[in-house]
Amino acid sequence: MRRRALIATIGLVIAAGALAASQPVTAAWTDTEFATTSVVSTSLVAPTKTSCSVDVVLGLSATFNWTNPTTGAPRTGYVFQIYNGATLVGSATPAANATTQSTSGLLSTLLNSVTYTVQLRAANNLWRSPVATGTFTTTALGLITSCTW
């Protein structure tokens, strides 16, 4: 009797499996909509550093020059920052078409024998380009003697 019950159970399992295999898939669908536009990715391009110069008459300012990028996302301006180590000591926001920025008027004092770091980035609202970095150095008297870009 047990043997018959086992054979009947196996038969029912096989029949149920065959029945399930012949059932249609109910989770499939076809979407007739399609994309009609494309997405393009871009970024702000860093300005190209060209030259820097020191005011040789007074030695109180350095001027940094660059060329504007012609590729990438449009910029709305620049962010120009001066650091003494990790401390921000001066900043300016040149216009989108600017190609030069002086340190004149951006620092309240020039410290003796310090190398300041200059950072320039193109900006568009909260977006920023990679940084273009330069330096300028002061003497023991606090006069700017050199700059690099």
Automatic annotation (TrEMBL):
SUPFAM superfamilies: Fibronectin type III. Keywords: Carbohydrate metabolism, Glycosidase, Hydrolase, Polysaccharide degradation, Signal. Coiled coil: none annotated. InterPro entries: FN3_dom (IPR003961), FN3_sf (IPR036116), Ig-like_fold (IPR013783). Residues 1-27 form the signal peptide. The keyword Cell wall biogenesis/degradation does not apply. Gene3D superfamilies: Immunoglobulins. This is Fibronectin type-III domain-containing protein. It comes from Microbacterium candidum.
